[in-house]
Amino acid sequence: MTVYPYVVAAVILLLGVIGIARSRNLVHAVVCLAVAQSATYVLLISIGYQHGGVAPIFSSSSTAPKHMVDPVMQALTLTDIVVSATVTSLLLALTIQIAKQHDTVDPDELRSLRG
Predict the structure, then answer these.
(1) Nearest to 22 by CA among 92, 100, 108
(2) How far is C-alpha 6 from the chain's CA centre?
């Protein structure tokens, strides 16, 4: 097993978090959050990967293979994609409403609205 997919997932997550921290635009922050969430796809798929593994399909005439790819991780990845798309669309809809009401998407300008 190699460590490269875990490093790639960590780098993607780090880039997304840095983008969120440095963002001066709500749309940019939402996109950076989507990038950070995509690191979980790489992580889940790399956890379920087996070198030389086959699809987990059984038939009555064949024996069970030694190495199989974990289908649970694939299902979790698909669920993660759906949740990420839902969260991203909700946050973008909220950003549109903020832009309509306050004529800005700069978080620094929105801070003065408290109180």
Answers:
(1) 108
(2) 14
CA gap 17, 33 in Å, rounded = 7
Angle subtended by helix axes 26-48 and 71-102, to nearest 10: 180
CB 37 within 8 A of CB 87: yes
CA neighbor of 77 nearest in space, from 3, 4, 18, 5: 5
Fold of 4-50+66-103: Helix Hairpins (1.10.287)
Terminal Cα distance for the chain, rounded: 54
Contact of 98 with 26, CB cutoff 8 Å: yes
Give pLDDT tens digits for 32-90: 999 999 999 999 988 887 777 777 776 665 666 677 777 888 899 999 999 999 999 99
Give the torsion through C-alpha atoms of 19, 23, 29, 31, to 10 deg.
-50
The span from the CA of 57 to the CA of 77, in Å, is 19
For the chain, which residues make up each domain, given as ranges?
A: 4-50+66-103
